[in-house]
C-alpha cells in the first residue's frame, strides 16, 4: 500500500520548480501542511486547489503530528510541504521519528534545493575542473548550534565552493570566519536572494565588499551566500574545460576524437 503521508520538497519558490511527483501528490492531497515562512501560499493554492491547507509557521511539532494523525485516522492523504529539498535544514527528521514511533508509514519526495536554484540564477557551475571539485552546504552557527569541527573558519581551510544557508543576517561574521581560512578579501562571493521568485535579487562581489553590498540592498533573510573561485573563473578567463567533452579523452560512450 502506498503511503498516506508524504514529505514533499516544494523547490526554491517558483511554482513550476516542484517535481511532477510532488505536484501530483499536492493535486490529490486532502490535507496540506506547508511551511508558510518560506513556501509561497500561491504555490500551494495553485497545485492543491481542493485540499484543506495548514500553515505550519505558527504550529508546534506536536500540533503538526496531531493534524497528520487525525488525517491518517480518517483515511485522508497528507502532504507535508517543505521548501527546497526537505533533507536540507528541513527539520523533517523529528517529524519522521514521531511518525515512526506512532507506526505511521510515510514517503519522502525530493525537491530542488535553493543552492541549485541560486547556481541557475547565477548561470554558474559550482564544480569547475582545476578550480574546485567540492561543494559544501553549510551555515553559520546561530540559535542552532553547529558541531565544533564544522565551525565556518574550520571548513574555510579547504577553499572549496561554499553554499551558506541561513546566514545572510550574520554576513559580517561569515566573512570574518572565511578570511581565517583559505579565502582572501579578493575571493569571489555572491548573494542570491529569493532564487526563482519574481523578486529574486543577485549581488556579485568579493569578500572585501559583499558585506557592504548586502547592507545596501537591505537583504537579511531568504538568501544564500555563495563563495569560491568558481565564481571568478569566467571573469578571469580561466579556461577550465571538463575532460568529459574533450576530444582527446576517451570514455565508455565515446572513443578518442581525432
Ligand atoms: N530546505 C531548504 C532550506 C531551508 S533553510 C532548501 O533546500 O533550500 C532556509 C534557508 O534556505 C534560508 O535562510 C536561505 O538561506 C535558503 N533559501 C531557501 N529558499 C531560498 C531561495 N529561494 N533563495 C535563496 N535562498 C533560499
Automatic annotation (TrEMBL):
Residues 5-210 form the Tetrapyrrole methylase domain. GO terms for biological process: methylation. Its EC number is 2.1.1.133. Gene3D superfamilies: Cobalt-precorrin-4 Transmethylase, Domain 1 (3.40.1010.10), Methyltransferase, Cobalt-precorrin-4 Transmethylase, Domain 2 (3.30.950.10). Pathway: Cofactor biosynthesis; adenosylcobalamin biosynthesis. Keywords: Cobalamin biosynthesis, Methyltransferase, S-adenosyl-L-methionine, Transferase. It comes from the Bacteria. One of its GO terms (molecular function) is precorrin-4 C11-methyltransferase activity. Pfam families: TP_methylase. InterPro entries: 4pyrrol_Mease, 4pyrrol_Methylase_sf, 4pyrrole_Mease_sub1, 4pyrrole_Mease_sub2, Cbl_synth_CobM/CibF, Siro_Cobalamin_biosynth, Uropor_MeTrfase_CS. Belongs to the precorrin methyltransferase family. This is Precorrin-4 C(11)-methyltransferase. It comes from Pelotalea chapellei. The gene is cobM.
